[in-house]
Structure formats: structure tokens, C-alpha cells
Amino acid sequence: MNGIPGGLRTDQQPPMAIPLRHFVVGLAFLVLAVVGGTVMAVRTLPGLADLAHLHVTLLGWVVLTIMGAMTQFVPVWSGVSIHSRRLAVAQLWLVVAGLVGFAAALLAGALAWLPVVAGLILVGIWLFVYNVGRTLLSARPLDFTERHFGFALVCFAALAPLGYLLAVDFTQPVLEGTPFVRGEVLLVHATLALYGAVLSTIVGALLQLTQMFAQWEPGAVEDRLLELEELLFPGGVLVLATGRGLGVEPIARLGAAAVLVGLLAYVAVVVRGLWQATADRSPMTDRYWVVVASLVLWTVLAVPTWLTDATGYAGLFGHPDAFVVLVFGVFGFVVVGSLYHIVPFIIWLERYSDRLGFEQVPMIDDLYDDRLERADFVLTLAGFAVLTVASLVGVPTRVAVGGSVLTTLGFCLFVLNMLLTIHRHGPDGLGGVFVDAIDSAPEESDDAPVTRPSSGDGP
Description:
Distance between the termini: 11 Å
Oligomer: single chain
Order of helices and strands: HHHHHHHHHHHH
Helix content: over 70%
Largest sheet: none
Radius of gyration: 21 Å
Structural class: mainly alpha
């Protein structure tokens, strides 16, 4: 996609350094996650390494990327200015400081520090929710994407204090004497995080991104399917979380069924969009095919687990062996595919858009190295396939380790490609990402005029 989508207000986006800073830090956590996962496949790490690795992967990579993407995407898509640039900067460093401390405390066994570092994460997440939430409130009436973002923000707001309670409960029995046990709180926290916060964001964004990169518009059939998804998926997540929190199997099973049916309706829409694409092949569409295939596989795996034991730990990721499918197949390939456009798009607007028509400038897709892009796709896809087979049917350990190595190499090539893109084309190179972005533009007033795309404008 080499042009600016019609109706998008790119003049409303925050300074370039703010979202890019989130992405670069998220890429650092991605490297830690994949390298750490490979190390853990061959040796045992100290302390609560599995829990530390899970949070580095999900909070450090996926959630930080979502925070940066929403901070940039909501103003552009909704045609409103971000509520506060200062809060957008603060949210990142609070979560980063908290996560680094959290992982270090788990690995070192210094659990007494967990309430302190988890408190930083809590404040950072709440600042993000408040800042983007205030921005979305200016964009009413909300469309499909914005409604899903709004629901994701509600889930972020709820899961953060639950996570803090779980961190405190490691050393102080704060849940003792309450109607809830730690396991039920953990299940609610994980449900809101995986399906409410992360997956709802993906559902909201992927529809628009598919339209954009496939150059396709949904028809009447797709509209009915999307209405079904909105009717079932968000409510299903809340019912599932409620059932798990109360330990009531029929309620949780009802919510699980709604989530699964809603997601299948949504997947059908995205598949039709990718199949009917009028645009040429792109890094985004290639990876989105992996995403929809992974969502279908994940749904197939989740059905027997969720419909027989929706309140059990076995269904935390939908299936006891579905972690790789959900986290890397769905979350990971969405993030990687989307960043292949978002990062060059932000840089192109900052450095080259004003020169268009006056001199020859590169297109957005020219900013990254297409050879590295193809290599990282082949490696990550091959590694993901091996890890998926290994988790579902079992293979020799050396084969699983080989899959982990392939995935690590692929993701590291992706990180290298993104960093080279920023270094070569960013106005101030890679170092400019960490220059204070607050002084680059005045703070917006709460009374700034609101303009947004009309209902007839598409991405």
C-alpha cells in the first residue's frame, strides 16, 4: 500500500518518535522472548522462568506494540488528536520499568519486590487506557474498529489490577478471606488479557488492515457476519471471564461458545477479503493468511476443551498445547505483518511526504529490505510449523529445538529489518526514536476541534 488511505487524518498523529519508541522497545523484548524460549528448550533457568518468559512475550512484545499502535492508529483512523503526548511517553517507561523489575524478581526469587514493580505496570497500563480512551471519546459515533478498541481498553483497565493482586498475593495473602481463590483470579486475568485486550484489538485492526492491503471492500454477506461477531465475541469474553471467576461451568461454557462462533464468523470475513484481494502480494497479506489459518486451527483445538472444561487451567490458551498457535500463529504474525507497513508508513510521512511532487522519493514498501522480509517469513513460518507439530503430536526434542532456533532466527531478521529501516530512513536515525518527542509539537488542548472520516470513507 503506497499511498495514504482516503479519509485518514495523518495530521492528527502524535510525533513519530512516540509510537516508534514503543515498537523499538517491543522489538527488544521480542528478541529476549525468542532467545529466552530457545535457551529454555535446552536448559532450565532459575526461579519462575516460565512466568517471566510469558510476561516478556505478551506484555513486553505484544502489549507494548499494541500500546504504540493504538497511540498512533486511533488519532489517524478517528481523525482526532491524541489526548496527551506526555501520558503517551510516560505509559511506555512505566510499563518497561515495571516489566524489567518483574521479570528480574521472578528469575532471582526476590518475590518481595513484586508489589512494587507490578505497581509500575498497573499505573502504566491505566495511563494508556485513560489517554487512548479520552481520545476515542472524541471520535463518537464509533465504528467497528473503534468499538473493538474501546472494548479492549475496558479489558486492559480490568486485567491490570487483577494482575497486581496476583503479584501481591505471592508474598501477602490478600485474597485470603475473600470469596475468590488465586486460581479463579488468575483465570479471569488471563481471559481478559488474551481474548479481551489482545485478541479484541487484533479483531478491530485486522479488518481495516485487510481492506487496506488487499484493496477489498466487504459486501452484504460480510456485514452480516461482522454483526454476528459483534453480537457474540465481546459479550462472550465477558461471560467466559465471569464464569471462570465464579467457577460456574455452564456460564463459562456459554461464553466460550459465543467467543468461538463469533471468531469463526470474523475469520470467514477476513478469508473472503484475502481471497478476493485485488492488490499484489505483500508482507502483510502473506502473514495474515497464516493468522487466519492459525485462528481456525486454534478454534478447532479450543472447541473440545472449552466445551467440556471451560473453567479449568487446561483451557487457559484454549487447549493445553495451543500456546504456540495462539501467541505466535495469531498474535505474532499479526504484529509482524502489521509493523511491516506501520513502521515504514510513519517514517515515510515524517521524512518523504512533503517532498512528493517536488523530487523523486521512495514508496513506503521501498523502505524495508524485501530480501530480509522474505527470509524472515520463510524462517518464522517453518519454525512455527515445527513448533506447532511438536506441541500437538510430539517429536524428538532436537526437532523441537530446531523449530525454536528457526523461529528465533526469523524473528531476529525481522527485528534487524525494522531497525535498519528506522536507521536508514528516519530523520534522525535510530537514535532519534529516543529523543524527547514532547517538544516536537505543542500539547493539544482538550477543546481541539474534532474531525474524522465520513462514514463513506474507507481505509
